[in-house]
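R.M. (postdoc): so does anyone remember the format we settled on? I'll just put the structure tokens first.
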């Protein structure tokens, strides 16, 4: 290859990261990392299955039918195959329909990828199935994908970390060289569907998420054919894509939380606090006079807009007063709380009006390094007041779901598409993924 100075400049940026993507060895991964990679794959599969049931995403299947693509890779829960890029697109889109993806608190706060699994896992499954990759190859690719997603950061101009992630996963499984991997990430980042800033209203974010997976695969295919791209774009003051900052020794898959509830993570401390108060004190919706929730100042977007009986489900998933009312009235937060029928209940919105969310600068000092703190105070009609503070919501790496709790979540999210017996077979195959010579043996169950 004849290099010009512009190409040489591109290849100098992100080389350590690309060397990590291409050179990481399954045999060098700690057993805890391997096990947690299996956990996040299971969790992502559950979010995909749940997404396939949402009516807003129903058009995906019809769209795929009209493409006429070769039947190469599996679309979960739909008894359908399509081409590798479009299968990754569909599964990544389904993974984002409900807000129940795993997430990386520090990366989100510092400009990395907020939710690595929704892109890394669909990409790895599609490319792995097409190429007949081994389970060990897929686990390694998922692990380095999480590293790329969370280690590339930047606040002033947020880098396209999700596109870099999918390109890295695809490059690893396709066996690209270091230089090709750099170019693949550059191409994916340049073509990343960043779109307009998220606003409340009709939701097409799940479609954009699908394209994050698809563009990474296509970028790797282009780089494999000798096409190049721009250099990696991030802020190296914030990024941890360097060996001196943990690259190759600190695996970011270990730093992600797993969501117990299908809502914005910023609401989870309040959900946990209210569930605990409701269980201990046994109050009913009619006994509640007022609920005061103290929130991180930059997390006040979860109370920005008022919702009502005609609101869209995604608005409600990002609205803490509505979610708090569901906890008090229903004692749970599942996808059932975001159906049109449940949202249309006027009595639920009467309760929502009793929930006040206020910013508390005192909570900001320990975020994101320490925790994601929330304080909840419930005032009852009889004058009693009950208070609860949650610093480390359930699902964080330091307060994780057990394997049993994670499996129960998968059963709930994948049902009725997957019954419990099939769910057990899927989890068993995942636990033995590193022994599979071809990941298609797992995907056949899906």
């Amino acid at each position: 290859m004849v290099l010009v100075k512009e190409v040489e400049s591109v290849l100098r940026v992100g080389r350590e990261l690309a060397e990590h993507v291409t050179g990481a060895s399954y045999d060098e991964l700690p057993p805890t990392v391997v096990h947690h990679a299996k956990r996040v794959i299971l969790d992502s599969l559950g979010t995909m299955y749940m997404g396939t049931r949402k009516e807003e995403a129903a058009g995906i299947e019809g769209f795929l039918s009209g493409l006429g693509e070769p039947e190469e890779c599996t679309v979960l829960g739909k008894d359908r195959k399509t081409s590798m890029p479009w299968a990754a697109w569909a599964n990544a889109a389904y993974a984002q329909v409900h807000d129940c993806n795993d997430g990386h608190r520090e990366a989100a706060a510092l400009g990395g990828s907020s939710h690595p699994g929704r892109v890394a896992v669909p990409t790895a499954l599609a490319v792995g199935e097409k190429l007949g990759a081994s389970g060990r190859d897929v686990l390694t690719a998922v692990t380095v994908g999480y590293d790329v997603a969370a280690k590339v950061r930047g606040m002033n101009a947020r880098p396209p970390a999700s596109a870099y992630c999918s390109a890295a996963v695809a490059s690893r499984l396709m066996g690209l060289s270091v230089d090709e991997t750099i170019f693949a990430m550059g191409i994916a980042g340049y073509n990343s569907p960043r779109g307009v800033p998220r606003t409340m209203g009709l939701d097409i974010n799940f479609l954009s998420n699908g394209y994050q997976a698809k563009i990474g695969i296509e970028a790797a295919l282009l780089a494999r054919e000798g096409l190049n791209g721009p250099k990696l774009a991030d802020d190296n003051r914030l990024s941890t894509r360097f060996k001196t900052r943990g690259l190759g020794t600190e695996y970011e898959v270990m730093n992600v939380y797993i969501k117990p509830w299908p809502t914005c993570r910023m609401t989870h401390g309040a959900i946990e606090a209210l569930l605990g108060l409701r269980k201990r004190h046994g109050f009913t919706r009619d006994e509640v006079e007022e609920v005061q929730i103290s929130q991180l100042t930059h997390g006040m977007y979860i109370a920005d807009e008022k919702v009502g009986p005609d609101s869209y489900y995604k608005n409600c998933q990002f609205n803490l007063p509505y979610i708090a009312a569901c906890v008090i009235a229903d004692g749970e937060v599942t996808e059932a709380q975001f159906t049109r029928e449940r949202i249309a209940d006027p009595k639920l919105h009467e309760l929502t009006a009793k929930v006040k969310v206020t910013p508390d600068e005192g909570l900001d000092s320990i975020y994101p390094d320490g925790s994601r703190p929330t304080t909840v105070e419930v005032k009852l009609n009889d004058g009693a007041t009950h208070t609860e503070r949650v610093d480390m919501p359930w699902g964080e790496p330091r307060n994780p779901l057990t394997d049993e709790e994670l499996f129960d979540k998968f059963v709930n999210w994948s049902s009725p598409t997957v019954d419990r017996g099939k769910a057990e077979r899927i989890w068993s195959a995942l636990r033995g993924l590193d022994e599979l010579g071809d990941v298609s043996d797992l995907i056949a169950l899906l």
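R.M.: ...and that's the designed sequence above, right after the tokens. Also worth knowing: The chain has two domains: 5-260+407-443, 265-390. The domain at 5-260+407-443 is CATH 1.10.4100.10 (2-methylcitrate dehydratase PrpD).
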